[in-house]
Amino acid sequence: MAEGGEHENIPAELEEDPPEEKETKDTPTAAGGKKRIFQKELRCMMYGFGDDQNPYAESVDLLEDLVIEFITETTHKAMEVGRPGRVQVEDIVFLIRKDPRKYARVKDLLTMNEELKKARKAFDESTYVNVA
Amino acid sequence: MAEVFAGTSGQQTAREDSERIFEGGQNKDEVATTKKRPSSSEETAGATTSSTEKTTEGEPPEAKRLVLERVGSVEEGETRKTKMEQLEEERQKMQVLVASFSEEQLNRYEMFRRSAFPKASIKRIMQQMTGTSVSQNVVIAMAGISKVFVGEVVEEALDVMEKSGDSGPLQPKHIREAVRRLRLKDQVPSTKFKKTLFH
């Protein structure tokens, strides 16, 4: 990865989560439940992928159900694969090996995460040395 | 694929873990390369097989632990240079493209880049399901592929909408049709209906 340009290219999944609000912090009921977890992010995402700037509420709800089902199914399958009862990165990679986009995305994310961790560690160490 | 499930020794660094994971996948399916534009022919000459050199399908040469790559190539030395060049070229092309966006396109692009699922929520969902804790890498991976999943559904739904001549915001019927099509392509995981092998 080109090192100089990373400050503009950090994927959103590797950023810190924005501070959470307290209202929606209860357990997500089964898909279709009243608590909507991903409303805000999903609306932004849908717009980013080509939908209208104001997507229909029913569409957002439907997509949220789909995403939760996706996460649930993938987690279940991952629990059966590899070490049963646990979900590890290798299991996820195994499950999406046939899907080129998802595979490439996971690869990029994890690679960049490693590089960021290394960079941060090097930065911290250099700070420490300077102070000492 | 065996390497992925070989016993994870705690001594391996996290970086080696990623390499090991993705290398195991890449040797068998040339997966990540399919989505990239196969622009220059010399780089993709070897792309159909794995990133190892001069081997037929089968064992990768043991000593050659190649760094994570996006495109297969012939020589290890050349690999790194052409990979860097390719990445740089790609970045430049993106810059030119983004520079020519209209304001609405810029907005949309920004939303595309910056939207992401909150890791805390995903972690909570997964931990409630498994009953155990999940590592941070798993949450990151899950957030990433969920976003890709949303993208696939929305794009397919937009296709459906276009074909049926509607316009405006996406409607649930488009989304449902899109999901139906993606299921046929096996891009939506489902454990509800097992395929019967033999009738």
Shape field of chain A: extended
Low-confidence stretches of chain B: 1-18, 24-59
User: Which structural class do the helices and strands of chain B define?
Assistant: mainly alpha
Number of helices of chain B: 8
Question: Between the first and last Cα atoms of chain A, what is the distance in angstroms?
Answer: 32 Å
In percent terms, what proportion of residues of chain A is strand? Answer: under 5%
- Let me know the number of strands of chain A: 0
* Rg of chain A, nearest Å: 19 Å
Major pleated sheet of chain A: none
Biggest sheet details of chain B = none
What multimeric state do the chains show?
Answer: heterodimer
User: What's the order of the H and E elements of chain A?
Assistant: HHHHH
**Tally of helical runs of chain A:** 5
Fraction of residues of chain B in helices?
A: 55-70%
Structural class category of chain A: mainly alpha
Tertiary shape of chain B: extended
GO molecular function (chain A): protein heterodimerization activity
Keywords (chain A): Nucleus, Transcription, Transcription regulation
Subcellular location (chain A): Nucleus
Region (Disordered) (chain A): 1-33
